[in-house]
Amino acid sequence: MTEPSAPTRFAPATDPDRLRYDLRAWLAANTPADWHEELRTATKERFRAFNIDQARKLRAAGLLATHWPAEHGGGGFSFREQLLIQEELVRADFPQPRLLEISLAHIAATLIAHGTEEQRAHLAAILDGEIWCQGFSEPDAGSDLASLRTRAERRGDVYLVNGQKVWSSYADQASWCLLLARTDPAAPKHRGLSLFMLELDSPGVELRPIRQATGTEEFCELFLTGVEIPVAHRLGEENTGWRMAQTTLAAERVFNTLELQARLAVAAEEIAAQARATPLGGGRTAADDTSFRQDLAARVAEIEVLGLLGQHLARGVERTGEVGVEGSLVKLLYSETLQKLTGLALRMRGMPALVDQRREFATSWTSGHWMIDHLKSWNWTIAAGSNEIQRTLIGERVLGLPREPQ
Amino acid sequence: MTTLTQIEPAQDDIREEFRASVRGVLRDTAPVHGPRAVWSAESVDADAFRQAADLGWLGLLVTERWGGAGAGMQEVVVVAEELGAHLAVVPFLSSAVLTCTALAIGGDAAMGARWLPGLASGQLRGAVALTGPAGRTDPELLDVRAREEGGQTVLDGKAGFVLDGADADLVLVAARRTGRPGADLYAVPRGTPGVEAAPQLCVDRTRRLCTLVLNDVRLDASARLPYTSEAWPVLADRAAVALAADAVGAARRALDMAVEYAKQREQFGRPIGSFQAIKHKLADMYLLVRGASLAVEAAAAALDEGRGARRLVSLAGAYAGDAAAKVTGDAIQVHGGIGYTWEHDCHRLFKRATFDEVYLGDPSAHRERVAGLLLDGQGPSTVFHQ
Ligand SMILES: Cc1cc2nc3c(=O)[nH]c(=O)nc-3n(C[C@H](O)[C@H](O)[C@H](O)COP(=O)(O)OP(=O)(O)OC[C@H]3O[C@@H](n4cnc5c(N)ncnc54)[C@H](O)[C@@H]3O)c2cc1C
């Protein structure tokens, strides 16, 4: 058989077997070698350039933004095709442009659903590598996000913004920020918030990176002092920010899960391979250890269920545009499976997993540095609505239980 | 302040006084709050180490004959728990527990006379190299080999994850001899030609690990500890209990911090500790810390009194390892975003507890031993499987 020649651009409506076959050829030719090692010691600038480079490659092949409608420059692929593409990218260990995650998912969805014609111009910029961050949380407004205090006061054609944001991931790499701020302090707390597009090099924006438990600087504090945001950069109507933030973002999360699930599945295979190569003495390997086998099998079942749940919910989103309250299930299951799986991997490997590889950057949550991956899983159990909050939501909104005292 | 010579075993109030004095010392000398190095291991808390030496903690397991306190594991776990709680960087486990035990039980009088007084007083520091590149203690996974040549012993190979080994005055290296089961320990003094140490940066920065590469290292025939086989089970059990105690200390501190935070931090207009999700989590954490602490004390007492220790040691190892992992992880969760920052001690406690759990064996090995005792009427005699 001759080597297949990779197509240069993928399009929907190809036969799935053909699509898979072509993708594999493209990935074999386009996945950079040694990128793990390169990113390990990369500077922030280099990491950023690498991300943009990867995004360009995907874009040229029609593989960036596979779930956006074609009219906005997306792939327009069917749901099944998107799944297939994600799976192949993950299996080939193709480094995805993580810095563009928020741009491609959350920002794009918000712009497509609520943006003006002018605002949607950012969609094209995002395809060209425009990086966005999310400025929601504040020091005193985490779980109780709706109590946030950053003020945006209307002054003619601009809003004057003052306040402080925190934990904004990769804000120091971004040029734009999706900002949630209070426009009506007199209204009930959920009804006085608006969403803005904040250009980060505006005067009055100050940024301070914060070092994470992993040793690397990934999130930032954002100080906003007399920052002017043009009224044209407000998304949707004034004081409707909360609802937009809840619906659009929750729906997006479901699509993210599809990639994350594929990665977990691949990680479980990687852990199995490592177990076979981890000697226990007596001619046995970790793969012979009954308790490890049982644990790994339980995790694999969770990963499968997560896939089924994610697909089920994503189909619902395609039909109705909303994920509904069951989105909390996906978040709980993903984060806790990730936490248990990485903990299992680190204990199976033992001391070698505790040697710090001093990685400045990784592009996935299952990088194979299991101790750091394990620690990072707390990012998932804390952020985007902590798991405690998700459980309360499931109890109250799915099961109809009486509400907690507020 | 209570000094060790005043300690009489099995006197609870005296031990509590001892604990208070250990705590007091570490509170003043160990906490290295402030900017800490990101990509290097923390250096030894020199003041804490000096105090530990002056107060006799380093000689707890050494008999009075060699200048030690002649105390036991019940005192060791008091110190270990406080070291864990204070995230102290003091070569206690490596030198005072493992090296002193190995020499006291596996060595002979000449070795004792040569090393134990210095180790007990803190003038010398010892380390043990019990694992190879796989980081496990099974003899067949060791890489270092010993052979006899012209009346000398020659060591070759690589030891991994040697705690405090880079600047130790003495490293006891486990090596296999061709054609013999098990492994022996060899005394390798600092400066021996052919020994090279390379640091291994541990995710837990409070642990200073290294690999030791031994290349044609020639030692006197007397370098082999003559009673190594007697030392193995004692070494294994003491290591397990001391590590479990350190983990309990880290867990206790994480719990204290989480409780404090839950009382102060407000969301939705109320302290987060008023939410049942948090309150119940903290109650569970408390149960785990109390239980683990009692299990460790019981195991230490059994080791000191020489009764039923195998079972209690493994129960403590299994329970405390799991408990500390759960408690230190939950403490991060209770703290939310702030608990995920480098400045905060949450991650240090979590990493320290993880190290304690994984080093020289893990809870699954302990559970296996308990299951063996329960189901088969007997189990492997030590968790080291030596
Ligand atoms: C790695 C990381 C990245 C992040 N990235 C971003 C980002 O890019 N942009 C952004 O805006 N934010 C980001 N965040 C912030 C994140 O969304 C918040 O940390 C999260 O909402 C929790 O808020 P908090 O940290 O203030 O914790 P708190 O709200 O103070 O919570 C502390 C603890 O109390 C519990 N709790 C609080 N209220 C209740 C309740 N009613 N019932 C039961 N339990 C409760 C929580 O579950 C948690 O365990 C990030 C966080 C992390 C850790």
From TrEMBL, chain A:
Gene Ontology molecular-function annotations: flavin adenine dinucleotide binding; oxidoreductase activity, acting on the CH-CH group of donors
Spans through the membrane: none
GO (cellular component) term, any one: plasma membrane
Any Pfam family hit: Acyl-CoA_dh_N
InterPro entries: Acyl-CoA_Oxase/DH_mid-dom, Acyl-CoA_Oxase/DH_mid-dom_sf, AcylCo_DH-like_C, AcylCo_DH/oxidase_C, AcylCoA_DH/ox_N, AcylCoA_DH/ox_N_sf, AcylCoA_DH/oxidase_NM_dom_sf, Mycobact_Acyl-CoA_DH
Domain of life: Bacteria
Record-annotated Acyl-CoA dehydrogenase/oxidase C-terminal domain positions: 239-399
Span of domain Acyl-CoA dehydrogenase/oxidase N-terminal: 48-127
Keywords: FAD, Flavoprotein, Oxidoreductase
Cofactor: FAD
Residues in Acyl-CoA oxidase/dehydrogenase middle domain copies: 133-226
Annotated coiled-coil segments of the chain: none
PANTHER family: ACYL-COA DEHYDROGENASE, ACYL-COA DEHYDROGENASE FADE34
Family membership: Belongs to the acyl-CoA dehydrogenase family.
Descriptive protein name: Acyl-CoA dehydrogenase
TrEMBL record, chain B:
MF terms in GO: acyl-CoA dehydrogenase activity; flavin adenine dinucleotide binding
Keywords: FAD, Flavoprotein, Oxidoreductase
The Acyl-CoA dehydrogenase/oxidase N-terminal domain, residue ranges: 15-123
Listed Pfam families: Acyl-CoA_dh_1, Acyl-CoA_dh_N
InterPro entries per the UniProt record, alphabetical: Acyl-CoA_Oxase/DH_mid-dom_sf, AcylCo_DH-like_C, AcylCo_DH/oxidase_C, AcylCoA_DH/ox_N, AcylCoA_DH/ox_N_sf, AcylCoA_DH/oxidase_NM_dom_sf
Keyword Heme: no
Cofactor requirements of the protein: FAD
CDD domains documented for this protein: ACAD
Acyl-CoA dehydrogenase/oxidase C-terminal domain segment(s): 240-371
Family the entry assigns: Belongs to the acyl-CoA dehydrogenase family.
Protein name: Acyl-CoA dehydrogenase
Organism annotation: Streptomyces violaceusniger
Upper classification of the organism: Bacteria, Bacillati, Actinomycetota, Actinomycetes, Kitasatosporales
